Amino acid sequence: MKIENKLLLNVEESAGVLSIAPKTLRNRLGPRAKNPFPVKPKRIGSRVLFYFQDLKEYVESL
């Protein structure tokens, strides 16, 4: 399945869309992050997921 067809993306897929390392994204999601990531994830249990549309809008706004 293509990423564009998915509603929710995990951290690895989201990092791929943003062209950054997954570790960088995880570091910016922590509660004490110095530079928090502007797109808020959806947390389902221990899973951290992002809406593809939110990431797409963020990239287009840059």
Structural features, described:
The protein is an alpha+beta fold and 62 residues long. It has helices spanning 11-18, 22-27, 52-61; strands at 8-9, 42-44, 47-51. The chain has a single domain (6-61), classed as Arc Repressor Mutant, subunit A (Orthogonal Bundle). It has a three-stranded antiparallel β-sheet.
Q: What are the defining features of this structure?
A:
62 residues
Summarize the structure.
By secondary structure, the protein is of the alpha+beta class. Helices cover 39% and strands 16% of the residues.
Topology summary:
Layout: E1 8-9, H1 11-18, H2 22-27, E2 42-44, E3 47-51, H3 52-61
Shape: globular
Could you say how many structural domains there are in total? Answer: 1
How much is the average pLDDT?
A: 91
CATH architecture: Orthogonal Bundle
**Helix count?**
3
The radius of gyration computed from the alpha-carbon positions, rounded to a whole number of angstroms, is 11 Å
In terms of structural class, how would the helical and strand content be classed? alpha+beta
The profile of the biggest β sheet is: 3 strands, antiparallel
